Amino acid sequence: MKRLLLLFLLLSVAGQIFAQEEPDLRPGNWPTSVQETVADILKSLSDEDKATLRKTRKDDLIMFHHGWGTGIRNHYGLWRGNDKLIESACGKGCHPDDASMVIIEAVWSALQHED
Fold first, then answer.
1. Residue 98, CA atoms < 13 Å, CB-side half-sphere
2. Suppose 32 and one of 40, 76, 84, 99 were both cysteines; which one would form an S-S bond, judging by CB atoms 3.0 to 4.6 Å apart?
3. Residue 73 and residue 18: Cα distance in Å, rounded?
4. Contacts for 76 with CB less than 8 Å, ≥ 6 apart
5. How far is CA 95 from the centre of its chain?
6. What is the DSSP string of the chain?
7. Is-contact 60 110, C-beta < 8 A?
8. Phi, psi (degrees; rounded to nearest 5) at 26
């Protein structure tokens, strides 16, 4: 439980960093698929964060909705017109909150299948 709280805090900070460091991710530079977004996020996670996230139960991922999820929504333009990423996440238009949760689950899933 302590590790989950630590991961939550780390990912909350990452969410704040995403929100502040947006110069390279302007419209036109956003990833437009969940796969591209997952690859970008995986590059930014430390080995320790990856290990902790791997141990997180899928049902517990909702705890990242605020913090990390907010960072995803802001950094990847889900509130600012990245409709292609939203469609990639949901198969159609959906709320940015729902799209960011799909991305969080996709990151988690990718980590479950890493060697």
1. 11
2. 84
3. 9
4. 25, 30, 31, 37, 82, 85, 103
5. 15
6. -HHHHHHHHHHHHHHHHHHH--TT-STTTS--SHHHHHHHHHHHS-HHHHHHHHHS-GGGGGGGTTTHHHHHHHHTTTTTT-HHHHHHHHSS---HHHHHHHHHHHHHHHHHT--
7. no
8. -95, 165
